[in-house]
Fold each of these.
Amino acid sequence: MSMNRRQWLKVTAGMGAGLALADLGVNVQQVHAATRGMKLNGTAEFTSACNFCSCGCGMICHVKDGKLINLEGDPDHIINQGSLCSKGAAMSAVPNSPQRIKKPMYRAPGSAEWKEISWDEAYDRIAHKMKDTREKTWKATEMDGDKQLVVNRTDAIAFLGAAQNTNEECYLITKASRLLGTVNVEHQARL
Ligand code: SF4
């Protein structure tokens, strides 16, 4: 690792302050733990999952005034057991980004403009498109050689799950896919 003069001065000044406090009988670890507690005062704590890759590492997140101010690996999470890679540790840049889109957006066919729509309108549009697609592409039977088999399915709808889905969500996604008559269920980690 290379360091310029300014970085070297910062590091040595920090080390010097730490050593000086220890010389005075101050427990540096306790001070660090106490200041960390102050930072988290008044925050709401949530568990979440990293959104970057298909490992789906668990996180503990602290939110204050609608802003994520601290995140760390969840020690109770079965995948990462408290650790995070450098990408996951820097994830706060995503939820705190001013460019983050928080409302459904719609671009009409042929239009270059995106417009904000309500969640109700978005759900209605998705539901109607799924219904139309299912009706237009429904196969009741299929030939297998000279035998006609009952298949009752559509090949035009697919579900894509993600590492952030819980077991319970995956169960419901699979149920919904079977209910709609598609066997096309895939997962982010296999792509
Ligand atoms: S913390 Fe790293 S390894 Fe874990 S899900 Fe995020 S990007 Fe993937």
Note: The pocket of iron/sulfur cluster is lined by residues 50, 52-53, 55-57, 80, 84-85, 87-88 (CB under 6 Å).
Amino acid sequence: MLTDLYELRDDVYRRPLITALQRIGLGPGWKVADIGAGNGDVSVALATQVGRTGRVYAVDIDPLRRNEIASKASLFSQVLAVTQAVEELGLPEKVDLVFARFLLLGVQSPAVAVSKMLGAVKGGGWIVIQEPITSAGRIDENPLSADTSAIKWPDIGILVPKLLADAGVELKDMWAEAPVGFKSGPEVDYLFHMTEHPLPQEATVVLPPLVTVVGKLK
Ligand SMILES: C[S@@+](CC[C@H](N)C(=O)[O-])C[C@H]1O[C@@H](n2cnc3c(N)ncnc32)[C@H](O)[C@@H]1O
């Protein structure tokens, strides 16, 4: 079930991921880190761009994610799975880019996590954060009512620009993008996973917008 949710998430939120990678000009040879890598979908997207001469550190606190990442990335020798908390982040080298998607909503202190991630990036390098505003989802005209009690920061997306600006990052680009579905399809399935309530038969769903913030270090 968890893997299904990851697969669906990757599907419905793929567009902002691709847009962000194009925006920073990610290319062959880059050294990058995907923090809170989950099952490795973002890591694989990064690996296809950095090529064999690049490197992707796929970092996750959960040791069980290691095998998932390894199997997903088996064709990409440039992906290294690392079991580590963002709060303890210590990579063998500084990277050109740190990427985090759906990470900050679950950490104890987003500010600490941001500061640790920034410490892993070279001067002049990039940070890309993608986080949701969960409460801004819709089912038809109605606000989404998911049980977010287990999520520490369900609306963290709205706080990310200030978090990065306060940390001294130059904000290069920011946008919010919300996948929309009607009646059936991955967006509707994803929302069903989130709410665990049956949806109206011909519902139009607007998933929680994903805020992307692209920042550059001095
Ligand atoms: C919601 S999943 C997102 C996975 C992936 N980034 C994506 O967008 O599909 C969050 C991931 O962050 C990991 N995580 C949670 N807290 C963490 C922490 N403090 N340090 C590192 N990883 C963490 C979880 O184990 C989980 O795999």
Note: The mean pLDDT is 94.
